Amino acid sequence: MFDRQLIFLAVVMLLTLFYALGTRRRSQKLNCVAAVTILMTLFSGLRSWWMGDLIKYYTQYLNCTGPNWQEVVFGKLANVGIRVFFHYGNLIGLSYDACIFLIAAFSAITLGVLIYRYSPSPYWSYLMYIAMGFFIFTFSGLKQTIAMGFICIAMIGLLEGRFKMFLVWTLVGALFHAPAMIFLGAYPFARKKPDSTYLLILFALVVILYFFRNRIIEQLAELYYDDEQTLEATSRVGGRFLMMLFILALGYYLRPLRTYDKQYGYVFNIMIVAAALQTFSIYDNVYTRLTDYYYQFVVLFVPMMLQDGKEQAYLMPEHKREIRYHARDLYILLSIGTTVFAIWYYRNYVNATQGLLNDFKFFWELDPYLLYGS
Question: Which residues contact 47 (CB under 8 A, 6 or more apart)?
Fold first, then answer.
């Protein structure tokens, strides 16, 4: 399974590099994103469901279509979306395998739309998405995969200043995975201009997290756990948090915040919230997944961060004197370093998830219906 995942990454890198090294017309970008979207959908959507949490989801699928389906589907509001999807999907003839395929397609398509519309580089976007482990997570976590897809749509509303769109799709995502509600705080913070009060707001965020962290953890635990949990901090920060801080610092150096550079500023602020939420992972690793509602937009941040100053000037000619320019050699060095680091990180991530990936098979390699209940 290790080789299979790396081969998939290599193919995606080649597809996106082919676009990056070409003339990079808009139509070519569309073709590039469409090709990767199809590849991701097939690779993830055609998997056998005999792995990870998919087995539990199959039990839920059966319960949602059984004689007591009304109580199962509507008995409680939390995460009702996935149960409604299973029930009515079955009514129109969708098998569990078909549901998995549609979820994979929805995740890949929403990501693809976001990357096509706002990423300067599909290469960096897809490399970050796969290397940071977001793609592997979709193999098992169906509820959050769907919710994160809706959050991608909500992010479009945030970037375009369409608050109603942002609000509606965030709430829809929360119907599938209640912790997605955490993204409601993104709109006011992300769209804060880098003015004189910016640092005060950052300081206030740090103070709130420090003094009210235990209370926040208690509230979040109620969303993640069905029973009471006693969570204690490990008193250490992880490498992922330090990596986030490094990326933010590098981004600020390469492309400082400017009032006119709105979309980059929004994404930069999203990354700040992601780093703040990552500090909760000292209580439980599950909060790393909570962070992903914000951190998934590293697929926009890294491409924006590594966008050449001349390219920025071409897109924003009226501000070319305010843009920070760097030597081409620096971008080449950073590109090589980022690629090497991403591959190294992914290899380690794949090794850490062998318990899940050892069971990864395509549907023609394993018939789970023969194993279920045996």
Answer: 100, 139, 360, 361, 362, 363
Neighbour-count burial for 100-113, b at 16+ CB within 10 Å, e otherwise = bbbbbbbbbbbbbb
Q: What are phi and psi of 260, to 5 degrees?
A: -75, -25
The pLDDT of residue 253 is: 96
Contacts of 360 (CB under 8 A, 6+ apart): 1, 4, 47, 48, 51, 139
Helices 80-91/163-176 angle, 10° precision: 80
pLDDT (tens digit per residue) in 224-259: 655 454 445 555 667 888 899 999 999 999 999 998
Q: How far is CA 242 from the centre of its chain?
A: 18
The mean pLDDT of 195-218, rounded to a whole number, is 71
Q: What is the dihedral of CA 173, 178, 181, 182, to 10 degrees?
A: -120
Residue ranges of the alpha helices (H) in the chain? 2-20, 26-45, 54-64, 69-74, 80-91, 96-118, 122-131, 134-137, 142-159, 163-176, 186-190, 198-211, 213-224, 239-254, 262-278, 286-295, 298-305, 309-315, 328-352, 354-357
- Cα 140 to chain center, whole Å? 14
Tokens 């608050």, residue?
Answer: 163
Within the chain, what is the greatest distance between any pair of CA atoms? 69
Write down the residue that tokens 């756990």 correspond to: 225
Residues 6+ away with beta carbon under 8 Å from 31? 19
Q: What is the pLDDT of residue 98?
A: 97
Is the pLDDT at 285 greater than 70? The verdict is no
Tokens of 95: 């098998």
- Under a CB-based contact definition with an 8 Å cutoff, are residues 223 and 76 in contact? no
Q: Which amino acid is at 184?
A: L
Q: What is the DSSP letter of 353?
A: T
Length of the chain: 374
Average pLDDT over residues 264-273: 95
Q: Is 313 exposed, middle or buried (0-12, 13-18, 19+ CB in 10 A)?
A: middle
Strand partners, 47: 362
| Residue corresponding to tokens 């909500």 | 154
Q: How far is residue 373 CA from its own chain's centroid? A: 33
SS3 237: coil
In the structure encoding, which two tokens stand for residue 338, read together?
């980022």
